[in-house]
Specification:
- This protein is mostly helical.
- It has 3 domains: 1-47; 49-125, Type II secretion system (T2SS), domain F (Receptor-associated Protein, Up-down Bundle); 153-402, Receptor-associated Protein (Up-down Bundle).
- 74% of the residues lie in helices and 5% in strands.
- The protein has 16 helices and 3 strands.
- The chain has helices spanning 25-34, 61-76, 81-90, 95-109, 114-119, 127-139, 142-199, 205-220, 222-240, 242-253, 258-279, 284-293, 298-312, 318-323, 329-341, 344-401, and strands at 3-9, 15-21, 38-44.
- It has a 3-stranded antiparallel β-sheet with strand order 2-1-3, covered by helices on one side.
- Helix 11 (258-279) runs antiparallel to helix 12 and helix 12 runs antiparallel to helix 13 (298-312).
- The longest helix is centred in the middle third of the chain and has 58 residues, at 142-199.
- The model is unreliable at 46-57 (pLDDT under 50).
Length: 402
Amino acid sequence: MPVFTFSGKDANGEKISGERMAPNKQALAQALRRERITPGAIREKGKEFSMPTFGSGKVAVKDIAVFFRQFSVMIDAGLPLVQCLEILAANQENQSFQKTLVGVRTTVEGGATLANAMRQYPATFDDLTTNMIEAGETGGILDIILQRLATYVEKAVRLRSAVKSALIYPVAVVSMAGLIVGALLKWVVPIFSNLFAGLGVALPLPTRIVMGLSSFVQTFWWLFFVGIFGLYFGVKQMRKHPRGRYYFDRGLLYLPVLGGLLRKIAVGRFTRTLGTLITSGVPILEGLTITAKTSGNAVLEEALMKVRKAIEEGRTIVDPLRECGVFPSMVTQMIGVGEATGAMDSMLQKIADFYEEEVDAATKDMLAMLEPMIIAMLGVSVGGIVISLYMPLFAMIAKLAG
């Protein structure tokens, strides 16, 4: 008989794992249940599925959102769980995601719950997803939970798109301005330098500065690329360390203009995630842990873990939220009202809706403010170089005319 590896929980809720011989997965799952063990993942040794990741498999967030939406419709229509997974896997164009769904289906066929099967693929299904799925299976509302997950992921995609649109335009324009100035200094300015050297005229200060910059670019142009790569890898290494990541994220929150936008994004993501988890029946302590891990900001993560610890000690959620100094007073007051009235889940969703609209408005305002600033900076840079190059010619013309 083949040998299977298994994991699950015993009657006391403790995690358990091991290896056993059995005719097939179904027989092993039945044997484990007779021993009051709730089976999780069951796999035949030597036939484990590989776990795709966002880096290698490139499972897009949009694919996951569509998957949840289709899955909820099938479950609501009454199709069996395994059949839903089989259909969704067969129609999935992304091969990595397809392998993941095949692995989930196989694990579910072996007797595991859908949540435990998804936990075998943490790169695709995070803690938020698996905990909500588990709550849906326990409460018999899996179709509703899947709809909420689809809505949550779609809103997250929309929020991410807003951030990208806010950053791509200024970065692209500044990069283009840098390339234009660099090209002028490297190829155009030397032509005028040779001309002025042949004429032997005295050069004004702005022209000498531009000539000096041109000489520097001609000799040390490679320092520009070294600086870019050095900055990139420096930030990457800094964010690998917990305290470095904390101070980097904290610095971003206090940037002028952009910091306010990032703070609104963080608050909107926090309230949306926690509200979705609480609405789905996930306990608030577990919900805070998941929200902290998925916040994407080390400052917010540390604040939420402090809030969680305070709640464990018997305090309400409002005071520790206010003490951490990360969240606006309006947010803490509204959460306090929601906690007092027993409607914190709906209150969190309302706050999330409000802040997502604020992000859209702040993004438009920032772009409207940055556009003239960037154009002015580009005009000053290019225009300054051109004027400084023509100043000696104007002086020569005036001298000849006089």
